[in-house]
Design brief:
By secondary structure, this protein is α+β, with helices and mostly antiparallel strands. It has one domain (about 5-135): Nuclear Transport Factor 2, Chain: A (Roll). It has four helices and five strands, in the order ααβαββββα. The protein has a five-stranded mixed sheet with strand order 1-5-4-3-2. The protein is globular, with a radius of gyration of 15 Å.
């Protein structure tokens, strides 16, 4: 049975994030995955997929109980978009500052292009400003004039 985009994106979030299976990144993302809109750590010489693994490790360390619920999806051919809610408790130092013990609950949207059932390209927008605010981090927001 061929899985459709909405099924694939739900599997991605369940396997990679809810179950914290780093090996699922290789299983569900193409080796030449091209990601957009996120500044990932690591050397630019590393593939997007390898740099994404660094983010996965950091967030799973910072939020050992992290879950990402896929609230709704929209599919169009090889593309699928998902609106998601992230929840977790900040118990580790994966974000570069001491654990706060605080809970986070914020949302984001992803758009993914699939080729042969694997992520080939993605665009992401997460409300990290809300997350850092919930963790008590002083970030400055300057609205456009």
């Amino acid at each position: 049975m061929t899985r459709r985009g909405p099924d694939l994106i739900r599997i991605w979030f369940t396997e990679v994030w809810d179950k914290r299976r780093a090996e699922a990144i290789d299983e569900h993302a193409a080796a030449d995955w091209d990601g957009h809109d996120l500044d990932l750590p690591g050397s630019p010489d590393l593939s997007w997929r390898e740099r994404f693994k660094l983010v996965h490790e950091a967030y799973c360390s910072a939020f050992p109980d992290i879950t990402i619920a896929v609230d709704r999806t929209i599919g169009d051919g090889d593309y699928v978009s998902a609106h998601c809610t992230i929840r977790g408790t900040h118990l580790g130092e994966g974000l570069g500052f001491p654990a706060t013990g605080r809970s986070v609950n914020f949302t984001g949207i992803v758009l993914v292009r699939y080729v042969d059932g694997r992520i080939a390209e993605s665009w992401e927008s997460w409300n990290f400003l809300k997350m850092y605010s919930q963790l008590g981090q002083n970030l400055t927001y300057a609205p456009l004039a």
